Amino acid sequence: MSTSQPTIAIVGAGIGGLAVSACLRKRGIETTIYEQAPAFARIGAGIQMSPNAMRVLYGIGVGEFIRRTAFEPPHWRNRDYDTGNLTNDHPLGPDAFDRYGVPYILMHRGDLHAALHGAVPEETICYAHTLVGIDQNDSGVTLSFENGEAVKYDAVIASDGVHSPVRDWMLGAEDAHFTGRLAYRTAFPASQMNGYKLMDDSAKWWGPDRHIVIYYVTRNRDEIYFTTSQPEPDFQVESWSATGDVNELRDAFSEFHDDVRSVLGACQAVHKWAIFERDPLPTWNDGNVTLMGDACHPMTPYMAQGAANALEDAVVLSRCLEGGGLEDIPSAFQRFEAARKPRTTKVQATSHKNEFMREKTDPDWVYGYDAWSVELPSP
Predict the structure, then answer these.
(1) Which of 53, 165, 202, 251 is the most exposed place for a label (fewest CB within 10 A)?
(2) Regarding predicted confidence, which is higher, 287 or 243?
(3) Are 287 and 358 contained in the same domain?
């Protein structure tokens, strides 16, 4: 058996791509990341890092760094949209730490991305590389980019998101399924609330056909984030950056509680995107190429588990690759899929229902997962 160190390219420097690079580096495996953006930028909005995700971040070495500025909610509250009556008051804070050994935190997505970016050497990230072609043969995998560059590697990990060109190359282009629902989101300074005191530091308000999630994203509670979901069948832009109309958003939640209307009244601008889903894929890998994260298991945002599952993927994939020679890569990628697919499929299906945590819920199957120690299928 060959024990030569394979060369590995990662497509995409998002949360999953940076995390898998950091995990592989911990195991002595070097990578090069190719990212289409021209430079690193703090983009995005709020994100929830549940204990299953925080275990990954602590293992990478950025957990405490993130925790210093992020918000640790004492509980997660679920309320009826108009009366404000509690339907589920789930304890977090010290209770979550005691139960899972790591905190549950709320933070700015850009801060998470920055922390993971800091865990990977800058010189291993190649920006302004938009993938336009991929070819695999017995001698390796060649990636071709819009800038004219072509590179060859022994293996490729595609963490290139819901619009993954690598997935399209592997399985053929396939349109996502529009859910008929639209989401608005933004983060804004808490000072814009003009002294209005919210009932909760973190809450989901459940209406008959729509909801809104509101929480702080900083330890000192100076930034508020919200994200919504409501029916709007005519808007089908699968983008995180399309601009929304604040007044249309306010009208959509005009019958909600004062807390909700006050938050929406304080925000000055919003982004909106249509919520799409994709069916579980028949396979995640082809020879020495594998998909991970949203490229192979995109999910609705209703459980806040998309990024968490990409982080879990990163750890499990690094464990499957550890110690393997060049000829072991296809079997390592198959083992990775076998280890992860049952869980990601269950999370996708549960998130689709949009019922998670509305009533009293035992989330241990989600939050208790430890990607560093979970049993893997036999090689």
Answers:
(1) 251
(2) 287
(3) yes
